[in-house]
Amino acid sequence: xxGGAAYIQTLTFYTDAPYIAxxxxxxxxxLEPGMHLHYLPLDEIKRHLQLRSCxxxxxxxxxxxxxxxxxNSTSHCVVFVKTAIDG
Length: 87
Fold this sequence. Notes:
Blueprint (H helix, E strand, L loop, with lengths): L4 E11 L2 H4 L4 H6 L10 H10 L2 E8 L10 E11 L5
Antiparallel strand pairs: 1-3, 2-3
C-alpha cells in the first residue's frame, strides 16, 4: 500500500568464496553440495526499490546482525516506503 514502510536486511558484499571466484558458474552450484551465497550491492538494492515506486528512507551497515565467519562480507539494513502505485 502507498505509504507503507518496510525493513530489509541483505548481504551487500561478499568475497573469498569459491562460488564467487568462479563467477557464479551455475554448473558449480549443481556439482557442489551445500548453500551458495549471493549478494546484491547497495546501489542495486536502491535501484530495484525505485523501479517499484519505493523510496529509501535510511540505510546503515548491520554487520553486527549477520556475520560470515572467516569471510570478508558486508550487510545493510534498509528502510523504505512505497510512494506510488507501480505502472
